[in-house]
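Section handout, structural biology tutorial.
Before the tutorial, make sure you can parse a SMILES string by hand: atoms, branches in parentheses, ring closures as digits. In the record below the ligand is zinc ion, and the chain has 408 residues. In the tutorial you will relate the predicted structure tokens back to the input. Do not try to memorize them.
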Amino acid sequence: MAKRTRTSKSPKKHPTLAAAVKLRPKLVQWRRHLHQYPEPSMQEYETAAYVVEQLREIGLDEIKTGVGETGVTCMVRGTKGRKTVALRADMDALEIEEESDVEYASRKPGLMHACGHDGHTACLLGVGAILAGMGSKLPGNVKLIFQPGEEGAGGALKMIQDGCLQSPKVAAIAGLHVDTDTDSGTIAIPRGYVCAQTDDIDMTVHGQSGHAAAPDKGVDAIAVASQALIAVQQFVARHTSSTDRKLVTFGTIEGGTRRNILADSVNLEGTIRSLEPEGREAILRFLKHDLRKLVGAMGGRLTVRIMEGYPPLVNDDPIVDAVEAAAVEIAGRASVVPQNKAGLGGEDFAYFSTEGEIPVAMVHLGIRDEKKGFTSPGHSTTFDFDDGKVLPIGAALLAQSAVRMLGG
Ligand SMILES: [Zn+2]
Ligand SMILES: [Zn+2]
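Predicted structure of the complex:
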């Protein structure tokens, strides 16, 4: 739990932060409940039901369920203005076995909230409570979007296709993600590129089996696949622009049946990450055409399947401006930092921009705390954060961002 050591010396809190701090026990309770009952992508049934139950308890009742299968939306209406903006939290967990002895550790074997989505959902519930408490001071309407399936299933796209940005029409959307590289309590503001385009790749190198002692009588698929792997990395490093940010990683390779038989085929699975479209197009062209010729020149045959993933996430400046202004109001200038280096992770929040066609901003909420030992990376078995400290900041940041996006 967070220790409160600065209460008497602190400068006066922004009213939205004060409201979030008051909610701290609730925020922690929500997050820890969700943490104990994680559900995988697109199976967030209990999570969605819990979200609805808590929204009702807050006093909000304009709720839609089953949006994009397991998504939930909730309208918070202000009395002034007609504009509607949205805030998004993702709800899904990961197939990871948690290694932790905290009392709120996952109670579901093999499942864990290891990316902080439990915290995001708790923050958005907190936003519901804060905005509901603003009454006539809320300068427009805010749609809370509780999204399923961020971890690969594209839940954002499913919700958009199911109309989550319509009736009433949403003008802009913001969201946050916890960030293990940024100090706890600091808010990092990315501009432009935030996350990469993701494409999955399945590749099979076909050879011809034969005796290990007579490689010239067959085609050694392992030898050909080795050349193909090196060629891919060499192409990326030597034949694409050094200013484009992109990479190819193969995470699995398998082939062959016995040490003295030439492998008949080798299967590889990988992922392509890119920011600028030029780098991505060059890699796809190489994989589909030139690499095929190269494998052919060694007597093999190549089949390549590319599965298009999330588009790149690009923040829109006017919305980032609104969120940054809110961040400074909530956390103070010293705790708000620019974040100029986009990572090559993927984030389906990008669909709100590309498919939803509205301006977006995703910002990062620091959770790294060396002193308290919160240093484990996302998607690791020991991931955790100081929820008592971080969640009030996250909830206040999102609530105030909505106010700013509405022009308040
Ligand atoms: Zn994740
Ligand atoms: Zn995540």
